[in-house]
Amino acid sequence: MDINKHKLVIVVGSVREGRFGPVVGSWVAEQARRHGGFEVEVVDLADIDIPLTLPAESPKYAGDSYPRPAGMAALTSALAGADAFVVVTPEYNHSYPASLKAAIDWHFTQWTAKPVAFVSYGGAAGGRHAVLHLENVLTELHAVTIRDGLAFPNYFTAWQEGQPVDEAAPGYAKTLLEQLAWWAGALRTARAAAPYPA
Q1: Torsions phi, psi of 57, nearest 5?
Q2: Would you say residue 90 lies in a domain?
Q3: How many domains in the chain?
Q4: Dihedral (C-alpha) 173, 175, 178, 182: value to the nearest 10 degrees?
Q5: pTM of the model
Q6: Is residue 169 part of a domain?
Q7: What is the CATH number of the domain that holds 72?
Q8: Could you tell me if residue 138 is inside a domain?
Q9: What is the tens place of the pLDDT at every residue in 60-93?
Q10: Range of 10's domain?
Q11: CA 185/CA 6 separation, integer angstroms
Q12: Could you tell me if residue 198 is inside a domain?
């Protein structure tokens, strides 16, 4: 890994049949690689074993000894090694998918003192309700959420051939990535200097 770059993990949050998330995730990864400040890894939750039943003890207190299923090892490793995240989420019934909530809840310290940006898609609201809920959840895990996200209303007509129709979208993505890179650098330096007081 290039030490001058931040490790960015893009989490594709939907596992629904016929989902659009991988298209959005691939486009975000392309923008991040063009930015040049990141080593990019895309984690698709559809490829991960994520049970809805959790152990009695919280991962907050169990740390590395938390008993996660073997099929979750790749996700846990990616989250732990990340300097920053982009969460790609649709909006289901005014919120985000259960698959994403389960993936978040199986972890704790992997999110701590790291920046998270959001790219959402949906109907008229463009997934913004989902992001509002995610901001609350990830703040509880001591992550730092990025203000400038990307939302794609009516995504079914707003994309063609894997690209957003809106020509301004790459510019908005650049702003998101610039803020994410700044926070990734600041928080990585802080974590190296002293343990986060969770």
Answers
A1: -80, 140
A2: yes
A3: 1
A4: -130
A5: 0.96
A6: yes
A7: 3.40.50.360
A8: yes
A9: 888 778 999 999 999 999 999 999 999 999 999 9
A10: 6-193
A11: 7
A12: no
Contacts of 149 (CB under 8 A, 6+ apart): 117, 118, 119, 120, 131, 176
CA atoms within 13 A on the CB side of 192: 7
Residue 16 has pLDDT above 80, yes or no: yes
Q: Which residue has the tokens 């895309």?
A: 42
Alpha helices by DSSP H, listed for 109-154, are: 128-140
Alpha helices, DSSP H only, in the chain? 21-35, 59-62, 73-81, 98-105, 128-140, 155-158, 169-193
**Strand 115-121 relative to strand 163-164: parallel, antiparallel, unpaired?**
unpaired
Q: What is the pLDDT of residues 23-58, one digit of tens each?
A: 999 999 999 999 999 999 999 999 999 999 999 998
Residue with tokens 């999110």: 111
Cβ distance 81 to 7 under 8 Å?
Answer: yes
Instruction: Please state, in angstroms and rounded to a whole number, the distance separating the CA atoms of residues 147 and 76.
Output: 25
